[in-house]
Amino acid sequence: MHPGPDQETKASEQFGLDDRSLEQLKEKAVAAKGRAYCPYSHFRVGAALLSADGSIIVGANVENASYPVGTCAERCALATAVTGGHTSFKALAVATDITPSASPCGMCRQFIREFCSLEMPVFMYDRDGRVVVRTLEKLLPMSFGPEDLKGAALESGTESGTG
Ligand SMILES: O=c1ccn([C@H]2C[C@H](O)[C@@H](CO)O2)c(=O)[nH]1
Ligand SMILES: [Zn+2]
């Protein structure tokens, strides 16, 4: 079976997204892939975030001569979105040139967890535009997030953060 547009439509319905927004999100993730700076791995990744206000913020992987310093497309997009004032997100799309599609690395999953709900869908597009979609909860089960720290602060009476 070819999991093409049919599966996308189902996913958009399942997650309450309109088809047009999802199509734009995919197009922008694929376009962002073209902006990747990856002279070391030659592995292009594009990411696009759908903000609650309907705008789309993109990112791509940006590598470095000191290899570990490079950053992934997902964290690039999120940092850009957050510093642009976006605090709530409806979906994330990631695009690569491989098949089957790649999924966000562990570091990115935790980074996404900080700002996005566990129900948020992550659409992963392969080189042919085929998509696999999973919720953040599915990608990062039993996760640790901001509310866990709040619980600790309340218990010890240090919620002001001043010690
Ligand atoms: O989901 C992923 C996986 C990898 N990369 C980047 C990191 C590095 O620049 C290159 C190879 O790992 O791909 C991403 O941006 N996102
Ligand atoms: Zn990553």
From TrEMBL:
Which Pfam families would you find in this protein's record? dCMP_cyt_deam_1
| Cofactor requirements of the protein | Zn(2+)
Function as written in the Swiss-Prot or TrEMBL entry: This enzyme scavenges exogenous and endogenous cytidine and 2'-deoxycytidine for UMP synthesis.
Q: What keywords tag this UniProt record?
A: Hydrolase, Metal-binding, Zinc
**Which family, according to the similarity comment?**
Belongs to the cytidine and deoxycytidylate deaminase family.
Report the GO molecular function annotations. cytidine deaminase activity; identical protein binding; zinc ion binding
Q: What is its EC number?
A: 3.5.4.5
Highest taxon in the source lineage: Eukaryota
Q: Which residues form the CMP/dCMP-type deaminase domain?
A: 20-147
Supply the source organism for this entry: Imshaugia aleurites
Q: Which InterPro entries match?
A: APOBEC/CMP_deaminase_Zn-bd, CMP_dCMP_dom, Cyt/Deoxycyt_deaminase, Cyt_deam_tetra, Cytidine_deaminase-like
Q: Name one GO biological process term.
A: pyrimidine-containing compound metabolic process
Q: What is the name attached to this protein's record?
A: Cytidine deaminase
Which Gene Ontology cellular component terms are annotated? cytosol
**So where does substrate get bound?**
61-67
Q: Which reaction does it catalyse?
A: cytidine + H2O + H(+) = uridine + NH4(+); 2'-deoxycytidine + H2O + H(+) = 2'-deoxyuridine + NH4(+)
**List of catalytic residues:** 74 (proton donor)
Q: What is the lineage of its organism?
A: Eukaryota, Fungi, Dikarya, Ascomycota, Pezizomycotina
Name the positions where Zn(2+) binds. Answer: 72, 105, 108
